[in-house]
Amino acid sequence: MTEARGSAGLNGTAYAPGTPCWVSLMVHGTAATQEFYGELFGWKFQPGPQHLGPYVRAQLDGQEVAGIGQLPRDSQLPVAWTPYLASDDVDLTAETVRHCGGTVGVGPLDADDAGRLAIASDPSGAVFGVWQAAAHLGAGLAGVPGTPVWNELVTRDGAGVTRFYETVFGHEAKPSVSAGSDYVTLHVEGRPVAAINGVGAALPRDRGAHWMTYFEVVDVDAAVARVVSLGGHVVEPAHECPHGRVASVADLEGASFSLVRTSR
């Protein structure tokens, strides 16, 4: 997980294809959601492209780290944090998604002069975005509290969907060495950038397959308490894992995300 901080794109160059370069949250009430995350992570907000409706970019220390937008009234998209994976050609990637059994729900379309995007789902139904950068390369800051540090696909059968991401984005999948574990790490140019976690029957029935975004915090337990005080709730209590201390929570509209204090 910690090695993902070395992803290209944070030094003024484009992210390598297949690398998560941005996370975005589409909600019904943007004002309350901005207040929630502003209080939790210290984010400030600036207007972004309005191609899908009202949208703001969250900033930390003057660097853009995430986006929050307004869901259209007729949208079927879930209220969920969605990672965007970098692509050199979003139209070709969208075609490959369809060819490999996925679905393209939005786009490809231009986001003003920022870039070109599509929103798709893999064969298991997990939603993700595809981003072809122009003026907006993606997140400008990572590895510090208040920024996304990892993205993990939670699905029933990890092995069944791994081939999809290998084909569509050119990921190199490396299985976990743990016996009986259905967990693979996705690599780009030799670096771990994301993971696929097959949880079998433990997959939440009310959510189905989904991508989980991890945000770095200084103190997981304190951050969990802050989430609750702001009107969110705990999905999985804080506990130790191989990467550090972690907890899963949900915001005011039920969008789940994880809080992590990575081991250093």
From TrEMBL:
Q: Which InterPro entries does this UniProt record tie to the protein?
A: Anthracycline_SecMetBiosynth, Glyas_Bleomycin-R_OHBP_Dase, Glyoxalase_6, VOC_core
Q: Which CDD domains match?
A: SgaA_N_like
Q: Which domain of life is it from?
A: Bacteria
Task: Name the Gene3D superfamilies for this protein.
Answer: 2,3-Dihydroxybiphenyl 1,2-Dioxygenase, domain 1
User: Which part of the chain is the VOC domain?
Assistant: 19-133, 147-262
One Pfam family, short name: Glyoxalase_6
PANTHER family according to UniProt: CONSERVED PROTEIN (PTHR33993:SF10), GLYOXALASE-RELATED (PTHR33993)
Q: Provide the protein name.
A: VOC domain-containing protein
Q: Which organism is it from?
A: Streptomyces aurantiacus
